Amino acid sequence: MTTGKVSNRITIAFITTLLTILMFSINCSQNGGNATLIGIILDEIGNPVYGAEVDVDGDTAETSIDGSFDLGGLGTGSKTITISAYGYINHSDQISISDGENDIDTIIMESRNDTRLSELGNVNTFNEVRTAMEYSGFIVANDTSVSKAAAYAQINGILELIELHKDVTIGEIAEDLAAQGVLLDGSPITASGLVEILQALINAGYEREGDPRLLLVLHLIVDTDGNLPSTPPTVDSYTILEPAKAAALYAAIIFLAENPIVSISVLETYSTLQENIVASLEINPLPANPDDYSSFLTYFGTAYNRIGGYSAGSLIGLAMGCEIAGGLTLDTEGIDVISAPFVIGDNTITGDFLACKLALWLYKNMWNKVGELIDGEEGEDIVLNEDGEIGFAADIRVMLTWEGGPYTDVDLHVTDPNDEECYFAYMTTSIGGELDVDDTDGYGPENFKLSSGEAISGSYLVEVNYYSDEGTIGEPIQATIKVYINEGTPEEIMQEFGPHEITTADMNGTDPDAWWTVTTIQWPSGQFTAAELAEKSKIRTALPPK
After folding, report:
1. Do 405 and 278 sit in the same domain of this protein?
2. What residues contact residue 83 under an 8 Å CB cut-off, 6+ apart?
3. Cα Rg for the chain, rounded, in angstroms?
4. pLDDT exceeds 90 at position 172
């Protein structure tokens, strides 16, 4: 009996060992082994898609510069292959893997450019602006209340520019980039230099319409229906860009100036990035060996999770233009660079150079300061309220905007307690009141402000004059006034008046029908007096000519 029991134990042990060997063999053949899968990933017009991730049931590889991949260590059997790449529709299929080398041949990836361009034609809402920025290669994240407000402030800023018809020319963008210290081939960037870059990129975009890296460039020239012109358009310094397009371009150039990207013509693999930096570009040190595309993107600007550089891939196209037109660098020597212009309560937002620069550009467009250098002192007064709006730390700010025909000239007039009237011919008062601009061709904004601590006690009269209807003779305008009290503080008050129709234009300024007496503001109480109680009581004198 003892012998039998030993024999049974040996038999059971042998069977267990055999099952273990068999299970190990089956497991190796299905979930890991010596099989290899090779193939090539191309886009719809035959260009290689590099940086694409090839996933076979959890085993992954990336495509190289020619679109090829080589994924080893695979087991045999039925597998699911999934291919993903930025800007392309994911491709998934069932394949069968045999021992040895398996050639899947060529897989065609479908670009998202056509569908995305169709969404970028007419951008007018918050979500459309957000989508336009994301499609153009930027991230809008909301991980914290602070970062959410900062990102929303930038989107709201672009929206406000859209509502104010604040289109921007390429020349104006170049002017502001130069004011921010952006150099092209060692000299301040010029309109002609920026035009040269853009023209090269637009031409490349037509050769590679399906390349997601060029979506930002194609976005600049798409029409309101989301269609591209039949041939590459010629751009110049007077070419006009709508606010969402201009913001994406401005942010991309600033991004490249701070973090020059490798040239598309010499990019091989992410492991050799350092060897392929365009020699003429200054750059912060790259990571020694970026592990993958994701870490590469994270390095280039997603800090603080606001609008920052997200898709280095889509911006590499701009680097190609840099190789054609010269190297972009950023010169901040002698410039009082603002590193953190936004404050929410006691929270100062720091870091993220790109987000700050984009917000400053939006601010300058709103306050008619394009091309000017905003120094640190003025930057300290730029604030972000909890609703995600860019504002100015001011005791009193009055903003005029209007709707009507083109080239209509409407003027803001504010009279302070000392009876000093701030308007186009007298733009600075003795107590510090300041009118930012005289907009003579529509549609504002014109801003009057008294910075924090400058307002004196008393009554401030707000009026609007329809000065000229040149371009739309005899047509009325609809004016709107926004008054901000204690702007940028927890006690901020905003009161909106209008829209109010003015039917008569009068350059002389003596016709009462050309005026709208809006309100009086009491400081420091912040109380408003209705317009009908502040009716035109003064004798108007002729306005000086412009």
Report:
1. no
2. 41, 52, 53, 54, 55, 90, 91, 92, 107, 109
3. 31
4. yes
Report how far residue 290's alpha carbon sits from residue 316's, in angstroms, rounded to the nearest whole number. 17
Per-residue pLDDT reduced to its tens digit, 64-105: 878 899 999 999 999 999 998 878 899 999 999 999 999 998
Higher pLDDT, 102 or 377: 102
Task: Count Cβ atoms below 10 Å from residue 303 Cβ, excluding itself.
Answer: 16
How far apart (Å, rounded) are the C-alpha atoms in residues 339 and 353? 6
Q: Could you tell me the sign of the dihedral formed by the alpha carbons of 322, 324, 325, 327, in that order? A: positive
Distance CA 336, CA 343 (A): 18
Query: Whose CA is closest to 73, among 34, 30, 28, 100?
Result: 34
Question: What's 82's domain CATH number?
Answer: 2.60.40.10
| Polymer length of the chain | 546
pTM: 0.72
Residue recorded with tokens 């549609």: 443
Per the CB < 8 A criterion, the answer to whether 501 and 533 are in contact is: no
Q: Give the type of residue at 381.
A: D
Place of tokens 């929270």: 347
End-of-domain residue from the set 285, 306, 330: 330
Q: Alpha-carbon distance 424 to 422, whole Å?
A: 7
Instruction: Please state, in angstroms and as integers, the Cα–Cα distance from residue 510 to each residue in 72, 414, 461, 504, 524, following that order.
Output: 85, 17, 18, 11, 32
Model confidence over 230-264: pLDDT tens digits? 999 999 999 999 999 999 888 878 767 765 544 33
Taking CA atoms, 441 is separated from 405, 407, 446, in Å, by 9, 4, 12
The average pLDDT across 532-542 equals 57
In sequence order, the β-bridge partners of residue 40 are 68, 106
Side-chain half-sphere exposure of 137, counting CA atoms within 13 A: 31
Number of H helices, E strands in the chain: 12, 28
The identity of residue 335, as a single letter, is I
Distance CA 436, CA 434 (A): 6
Contact 68, 39 (CB under 8 A): yes
DSSP secondary structure code for residue 428 in this structure: B
- With 0-12 CB in 10 A as exposed, 13-18 as middle and 19+ as buried, what is 205? buried
Dist. CA 446–CA 69, nearest whole Å: 58
Residues 81 and 130 in one domain: no
Confidence of residue 520 (pLDDT cuts 50, 70, 90): very high
Cα 464 to Cα 260: distance, rounded to the nearest angstrom: 47
Tell me the residue range of the domain where 472 lies.
393-534
**Sheet of strand 91-97, all strands in order from the earlier edge strand to the far edge:** 59-62, 53-56, 77-84, 91-97
**244 and 312 co-located in one domain:** yes
- The residues near 143 (Cβ < 8 Å, ≥ 6 apart) are 305
Q: How many alpha carbons fall within 13 Å on the CB side of residue 101?
A: 6
